[in-house]
Amino acid sequence: MKSDVVTNILMVGVGGQGTLLASEILSEVLMQAGYDVKKAEVHGMAQRGGSVVSHVRFGKKVFSSIIPEGEADVLFGFELLETYRYLSLVKPEGTVVVNNLRIAPPSVALGQRTYPAEIADKLQGHVKNVQLVEGQQLAEEAGNPRTVNTVLLGALSNALEPTQEQWVAAIKNLVPERFLEVNLKAFELGRTIHT
């Protein structure tokens, strides 16, 4: 991705998945790489289980933090249904990096609705490049299931200009010391996935 254009990354997930930390790390590494970065976050009604959306825009000069509909270059999803919900914001030629995980929303958990089938296929029908990541499995392999966010960042890092050293520095700046080693391992496992 070239620095003279604005690149838009929309990060979506469910409260408690680490979406906001991931957007902080992404913004930090992009600033270290010399980009102008703007970020906006929207939190759902529930602290845990509500929708969480983070807009990250970067380039030579960025004037607005909100990604216009149909302008996201990358849709970065922590859960399948949340990712599908925001599909209209991504360009047809864009990329979707999504965790292969289903979390039942309250209406499904209460039996009022069913979880939509074949979401991965629906994503692939709308967007050119869909990368389905077994984030939970890789996070457990790293040693902590809560490191899915850094697994997914590792997968995303392959498609962006910042160096591995810049990514590691950003993670070190933002992840508490006691969780640093497992997050770095999760990030490295994510880098084995090529978007």
Explain the overall architecture.
By secondary structure, the protein is α/β, with parallel strands linked by helices. It has one domain: Pyruvate-ferredoxin Oxidoreductase, domain 3 (3-Layer(aba) Sandwich). Helix content is 39%, strand content 24%. It has eight helices and six strands, in the order βαβββαβααβαααα. The protein has helices at 19-32, 80-85, 106-109, 119-126, 135-142, 148-157, 164-174, 177-191; strands at residues 7-14, 36-43, 51-59, 72-77, 90-99, 129-133. Strands 2-3-1-4-5-6 form a six-stranded mixed beta sheet, with helices on both faces. Strand 4, helix 2 and strand 5 form a beta-alpha-beta unit. Helix 1 packs across helix 7 (164-174), helix 5 packs across helix 6 (148-157) and helix 5 crosses helix 8. The longest helix has 15 residues, at 177-191. The radius of gyration is 16 Å and the shape is globular. It starts with 6 loop residues before the first strand and ends with a helix. The mean pLDDT is 90.
Kindly report how far apart the N and C termini lie: 13 Å
CATH class: Alpha Beta
- Number of strand elements: 6
- CATH superfamily membership, which one? Pyruvate-ferredoxin oxidoreductase, PFOR, domain III
Sheet with the most strands: spatial strand order: 2-3-1-4-5-6
* CATH fold description: Pyruvate-ferredoxin Oxidoreductase, domain 3
Give the structural class.
alpha/beta
Helical element count?
Answer: 8
Hey, roughly how much beta strand do the residues contain?
Answer: 15-25%
Annotated CATH architecture = 3-Layer(aba) Sandwich
Total individual domains: 1
Shape call: globular
Low-confidence stretches: none
Give the ordered list of helices and strands. Answer: EHEEEHEHHEHHHH
Mean pLDDT over the full residue set:
90
